[in-house]
Amino acid sequence: MPDIDDLTARPPSPPTRRGVFLLPNLLTTGTLFSGFYAIVAAIDGNFDRAAMAIFGAMLCDGLDGRVARWTHTETLFGKEYDSLSDLVAFGLAPALVVYQWGVARLTEHNAVWGRLGWLVTFFYAVATALRLARFNTRTASVDKRFFEGLPSPAAAAVVASFIWCAHTYDAYIPVSGLVALIAAFVVTAVIGVLMVSRFYYSSFKGFKLTGRVRYTSVLLIPLTFAVIFSEPPLVLFLLFGVFALSAPVAWLWRRLRRRPNEGSAPGPR
Length: 269
Prior knowledge:
The chain is mainly alpha-helical. Helices cover 74% and strands 2% of the residues. The chain contains nine helices and two strands; from the N terminus they run αααααβααβαα. Strands 1-2 form a two-stranded antiparallel ribbon. The longest helix has 34 residues, at 76-109.
């Protein structure tokens, strides 16, 4: 039995302030608000603002989990709230942005194309919900270094930046009319498939901010921001588009390299 003096001498642990619990949930609310604003902006025809709002949701979503871990305020409530906010910001918002930008115009060309565009945007929203549900149920059993399927924030970034490019560079794009609309829905459908695929994407969780780095690595940070801010729609679309294609291209490359070795007959000794 412990000595009574030891119990009285031990200082009580300070209670966690309520504001600490509030901070990560405020960031999650920022994700939800950004997704809601993207939907409203798309309805009003402000597709550039809608795309910016989706990237704002990505920023809030990237911070809320880290803040919760840094302050040791991770809760089951926060996890569920984060998933619901992600469904709105990275599932419903991009789908509705594409719908508002293209489905009405597709209907002008052909009613069948309009229905197909409606189904594609719905498929994207369903794929996001399935991707989030799979992530939540397999969190404890998967390798933290990789994501199974394209992460929903990256998927939303590809779709949003594509619409942003199409809206911003409408006068400079060589293809227009039905071809451009079909391209938008093909991108949306392919990204939806990649979200529910079995391809593995790097989570970049092995990258550490602590430790020594080269001066050239430090210089890359402002250079990257300078390139992004020079042409945000185009650069963001290229960056996230390359990331989305990286896993299937790597898989295809491994298959092509392995096929000659597996099918070749043993040579003479």
